Amino acid sequence: MFKDLIFVDGTSKYVQIADHITKLIEDGMLIEGTKLPSSRELSSILGVGRNTIVEAYGILEEKEFVETLKGKGTFVLGNKIKMKSNWHIDWNTKTNRYAEIAEQLDIVKSEDKWKHGMISFKSISPPGELFDMEEFKRAFLNRISIEEHKILNYGYAIGYRPFLQYLNSYMIEKGACSKNKDIIVTNGFTEGLDMLLSAFTKPGDYILCENPTHNTALKIMKTHELNIIGVDMMEDGLDIDDLEKKIKDRNIKFAYLIPSYHNPTGVVMSISKRNKAYNILRENNIPIIEDGFNEELIYESSHAIPLTTIDGENNGVIYLGSYSKILFPGLRIGWIYGDKRAIEILESVKRCRNIHTSFLDQGILYEFLKSGAFEKYIKKVRRVYKEKYEFTKECIEKNIKEAEIWGEGGLHMFLKIKGIDTRQLLRVCYEKGVIFMPGDVFYINREENSTLRLGFTRLSYEEIEKGIKIIKEALETIKKQQNCGKM
Ligand SMILES: Cc1ncc(COP(=O)(O)O)c(C=O)c1O
């Protein structure tokens, strides 16, 4: 910057230096508060005597471009920096279809926000107070002292090797057959699904899913411009007749299913339905994306087997796992388990996107998992969630008798209230300090408006009771309004 100055004949050097620095300040190349080089340093850079620099700085000081603080140096003042030219880009005109859909469907932006003091049934995150922080700190220190600098360097796209080995054994424990299967670590389920759809689908392809389903999954399918075919849900999982009807005469690329503690309904698909659904999809050559995000939370110790286990040595099921709901959402760690070749393709997709998921995070998580702290934590949260689930259910049964309660547990339950627009219910509840997730956001075309999802795990018993009573009052208000409308 200073070296750019080329002296010309006919003007004193100190004037040329002052002019050069003036221009740098006016152009914003030297910002307010920047310390200028000392006279000794600048004289050596420019090959002039120190006095020349002292005189140049004197001019700048007189014009109030700089100030000299005794013993500290010479600093640029802000008052002479010219405003940048008026350059304004309208970023709305630059977006592509992906961004338009992503923003349109971004419920974090569009839904009513929680305000301090409100009772929120919206969240289905684990309550942080249950995290074993001491063990987590130990895991961090242990892993970093074992790996030292290596864990802070670049690693493999598929993941941190000890963690991959852990996950492989974990999948075998679930009964999965590891022959010709592989694993890749992802930034949560969300990245896993996005990677899969990026690698194996193109706009216009058909994808089948439960309707309702996980809102983020719907958003990802829509950003990939897929044709989404919804299959109705029953209280024990997919409506098999509807599944058969919907796949008929259609070339469906994938089926995305959440067999356990389905979001939003909380339904656990029965074993017989798992088998039926699997066989129908296999016979029709439709690969399954199985979302196993919540299955560890099953309140009973034994769990219905995942579809990937039913798949055995076949390769038609790709299983997506995540530590977001069963442990730490903020670590953003999940995995994809499936056919070796499919994972090999996904490895290149991952490298293309973000090279790999943080090795430090994977390393800490691995250390935490192998310490046995995870099993202890799961045992604890299952008990806590079960008690809260039963309490919430009791409160609803007592106060909102007309509600049909769906779901067997996990982190949430789903209500259907015939004849009630739950958006309207939410508006009334919001005024009274309660929020929940209106069910329409989980339907492919937002076509159903009489359902809602209640997350209960982060609320105290008092809040649950108070919140349900407020929903009851809001319902009464709406019914009165409906009755008045009829008169
Ligand atoms: C059905 C389903 N799958 C997976 C996840 C976890 O997603 P992620 O791992 O990206 O946090 C969630 C979170 O709400 C979910 O509801």
From TrEMBL:
UniProt entry tagged with the keyword DNA-binding: yes
UniProt keyword annotations, A-Z: DNA-binding, Pyridoxal phosphate, Transcription, Transcription regulation
A Pfam family per the record: GntR
Domain HTH gntR-type span(s) in chain numbering: 11-79
Record bears the keyword Magnesium: no
InterPro entries, A to Z: Aminotransferase_I/II_large (IPR004839), HTH_trans_reg/aminotransferase (IPR051446), PyrdxlP-dep_Trfase (IPR015424), PyrdxlP-dep_Trfase_major (IPR015421), PyrdxlP-dep_Trfase_small (IPR015422), Tscrpt_reg_HTH_GntR (IPR000524), WH-like_DNA-bd_sf (IPR036388), WH_DNA-bd_sf (IPR036390)
Top-rank taxon, per record: Bacteria
Assigned protein family: In the C-terminal section; belongs to the class-I pyridoxal-phosphate-dependent aminotransferase family.
Name under which the protein is recorded: Transcriptional regulator, GntR family
Source species taxonomy: Bacteria, Bacillati, Bacillota, Clostridia, Eubacteriales
